[in-house]
Amino acid sequence: MRNGRIALAVLAALCSAGCGRTYGLPRGATVQAQAMYQDWTIFFYAGLAVAAIVFTLILVPLVVWRRRSEAYPPQFRRNNRWEFVYTGIPILMVLALFGVTYVEEARVERLAPHPANVVDVIAFRWSWEFRYPGHPIAVVGTPQSPPALILPLGETTRIHLTSRDVNHAFWIPGFLFKRDAIAGIDNYFDLQPTHLGFFRGKCAEFCGLDHATMTFGVRVVTQNDYARWLRSGGSSAALSPVGGPS
Amino acid sequence: MTTATAPSPRSDPARRGIVEWLTSTDHKHVGTLYMCTSVFYFLVAGALAMVIRAQLSQPEMTLVGPHQYNEVFTLHGTAMIFLFVVPFALGLGNYLIPLQIGAPDMAFPRLNAVTYWLFFFGGLTVFSGVLVNGGAAATGWTAFAPLSGIKIATGGGQDLWIAGLLMTSVSGIFTAVNFITTTFLYRAPGMTMWRLPIFTWEMIATSLMILMAFPSLAAVLAMLYIDRHLGGQFFQAGAGGNPILYQHLFWFFGHPEVYIMILPYFGVISEIIPVFSRKPVFGYTGLVLSAFAIAGLSMGVWAHHMFTTGVVANLFFSGVSFLIAVPTGIKFFNWIGTMWKGSIVFATPMLFAIGFMLNFLIGGISGVMVASPPIDFNAEDSYFLVAHFHYVLGGGSLFAIFAAIYFWFPKVFGKMLSERLGKWVFGLLFVGFNATFFVMHFLGDMGMPRRVYTYAPLPGWGTLNLIASVGAAIMAIGVLLFAYDVVTTFFSRRYAGADPWGGYTLEWWTSSPPPEFNFTSLPPIRSERPVFDAKHPELARPKG
Asked: What value does the CA radius of gyration of chain B take, rounded to a whole number of Å?
């Protein structure tokens, strides 16, 4: 069992090294994702430290103080000093983690005063509709042919998210972000992509029969391509070919 | 281990007919029925889990269809939570509380029997959905409206789910009333509140949470039924209702529920570790106060399940959720302090208790992570979250349940489970559990959402899912070995005696199984471990 634990720790260490020091998480390809990633990294290290300390404290007595005779050990209990320490340190730790959360949460949730673009995203059973207000473009998908969301690189796009029926959730793992789509509620958030390419999107809130196949694509294009694409009324021929999924 | 030396009356074998069991109001019969029924539901829910893991073992499998898959995980979650982890704790509380406080029975024995039958028929009602047109409920254990509304969940399965859970929620409320009344009014002379065993304390805290949380569950279920059949619009956007209201009411129950599923098992661990470290518990007062700190804080964290809805005060619920790490930490350090400089015996209950600590710590750490909204924005509803709550409920509560079974089985049935097989059961479950659920952290980070019946063949997904499925199969072998152990034990001659482990609390003073009305004599009660004091007067706690 102890060996198993050590193996797991080694595995975690190897993975964090092997996955380009991302601790299992992709880096996230938006400005907002940098906050999510920063938050993750700090919590990952804090969690690793707590795990190392507490696992050691659990395993030490198991090795050192196994029963060696029938005699009972000293029947001591309570120690105010230690109780103070093991209450105080966790309090300081969660205060610090709350501080980190406070800062990073604000970075993620911040809405730009004047976003360059707005896209209306409407979730329904079981696909997505993307509308670009001011342009005659409405992309409607099906589970068999998932729709693509086109975003310009480096510009802020305000997403206006809602649902036509049950609860859904708009999730782009490559952006480390999701938000629920709920009928009667208008949700707004900003995405400012930092990488060109294709990203997978999916519904994360269970919505019934075809929930698993309620996917969409996200294509981050250059600002020139984006402008040309909008002018063309949403023709994919207006876009330069891009690389594979990331 | 010390052998039985305490004066122990013999139980009356004539009172063991099936009719006696089914009509009994004896808390031991009710508790035993509770625990056996809940273990039966565990086996059913575990079999459903095997279907899930078989379906997901490779990309694009077609073992079950999407609707069947939705029924399977709905019943798996519903049964594990409402029909296993909670009722097992209530059954254990039923069995142990009167024994631990030196009482002859519960305060309201007939009400107690009613709670069992409400739970029994509630479970049957939920599962009877498989027989009706449209099949069982298929909207997850959370059954969020409007997905669970009549327009989409058209079948009767959803109604049976509502009816069954209403019965179990009423059952839970009655049980909580009984536990609180019994511990406050029926303690033996000398058993002051500050000498109550930790398990009993944890059950008091659990009962208080049940009294606050379960009415919200009953309300939301009733409202869902009204929406479905009586033209209500509680959860219907555009008609004055709001789908968010469902989530608030559900999670106002659902988060205390998470602690209702763990505090009793913190109690189990707090009983087992001192006995097998052969020392008193390190910080009794700290353990008691931390239980109530968790119970209190648990009422203010419900919306951390709703960070991604965009309409709750994320920072408030994040902050309160972080705070729960403090009393949970106090419990961990108390268990460590109890083992420190002890004389540790690696009996099967202790192995499961150690497994509990190691697993629960991982679940606790990932819990603090997802309590930070920016992390939760990615992790919510992904396999990272599935990993997190299985580490808490499976690695935590389930391991504590096995610890409890191996520890108290001799008391309940009078015979010892096999120590040799028990160690194998532990090994298989520990390895299988970690193989199944550790990899799910990575799957979540790679973008796998929960509650999907299939997934695309993306790099690494098939391999990690296969590891999880193999782990689940190892767990299944462990559970089958456990079942074999139980069956053969009934035919064995491994009689337990009153006190096979050198126990501390009053249940170890009386015979195994205890007679009707529990005790023919009681030792003097001068600390939280009267049986230890009576057997080792030279080591008993000095006065004051």
From this structure: 23
Nearest to A149 by CA among A210, A191, A114, A94: A191
> Cα angle at A78 between B292 and B269, to 5 degrees?
55
Task: Identify which of B325, B451, B541 has the shortest CB distance to residue A94.
Answer: B325
Residue-wise pLDDT for B222-263, tens only, equals: 999 999 999 999 999 988 899 999 999 999 999 999 999 999
Beta carbons within 8 Å of B143's beta carbon, 6+ residues apart:
B74, B137, B153, B158, B161, B162, B224, B250
Contact list, A40 vs chain B (CB under 8 Å): 369, 374-375, 378
Q: In chain B, how long is the greatest CA-to-CA distance?
A: 73
What residues have CB less than 8 Å from B506, skipping those under 6 apart?
B99, B100, B101, B102, B188, B191, B197, B519, B522, B523, B525, B530, B531
pLDDT at residue B86, as a whole number? 98
Do B343 and A71 make contact, defined as CB atoms within 8 angstroms? Answer: yes
Around Cβ A5, how many Cβ atoms within 10 Å? 15
Give the distance from CA A115 to its chain's centroid: 22
pLDDT tens digits for range B482-541 = 999 999 999 999 999 999 999 999 999 999 999 999 999 999 999 999 999 999 998 886
The minimal CB distance from B343 to the residues A15, A73, A125 is found for A73
Output the pTM of the full model: 0.93
Task: Report the SS3 class of residue B514.
Answer: coil
CB-based contacts of B346: which residues, under 8 Å, 6+ apart? A66, B276
SS (H, E, C) B338-399: HHCCCCECCCHHHHHHHHHHHHHHHHHHHHHHHCCHHHHHHHCCEHHHHHHHHHHHHHHHHH
- Chains A & B: contacts with CB separation below 8 Å: 272
The distance between the two most distant Cα atoms of chain A, rounded to a whole number of Å, is 87
Interatomic CA distance for residues B25 and B47, integer angstroms: 32
Both tokens of residue A164?
């036509």
Judge contact between B180 and B106, C-beta under 8 A. no
CA distance, residue B309 to nearest chain A CA (Å): 5
Average pLDDT over residues A216-220: 97
Q: Looking at CA atoms only, how far is residue B305 from chain A in angstroms?
A: 12
Structural contact between residues B279 and B410, judged by C-beta atoms closer than 8 angstroms: no
Give yes or no for B61 touching A (CB within 8 A): no
Residue contact A169–B541, C-beta within 8 A: no
Are the CB atoms for A116 and A214 separated by under 8 Å? no
How would you classify the pairing of strands A127-131 and A117-124?
A: antiparallel
Residues of B in contact with A86 (CB under 8 A): 329-330, 333
Tokens coding B308: 């991604």
Taking the CA atoms of B179, B181, B184 and B187 in sequence, report the sign of the dihedral they define: negative
Other CB atoms within 10 A of residue B128 CB: 17
CATH 3.30.565.10 fits A117-236, yes or no: no
* φ/ψ bin of B134: left (φ > 0), alpha (ψ from -120 to 50), beta (otherwise): left
Q: Is A185 on the interface with B (CB under 8 A)?
A: yes
User: Structure tokens of A193?
Assistant: 């992509």
Q: Name the residue ranges covered by the structural domains of chain A.
A: 2-67+78-109, 117-236
Domains of chain B with bracketed CATH: 22-539 (1.20.210.10)
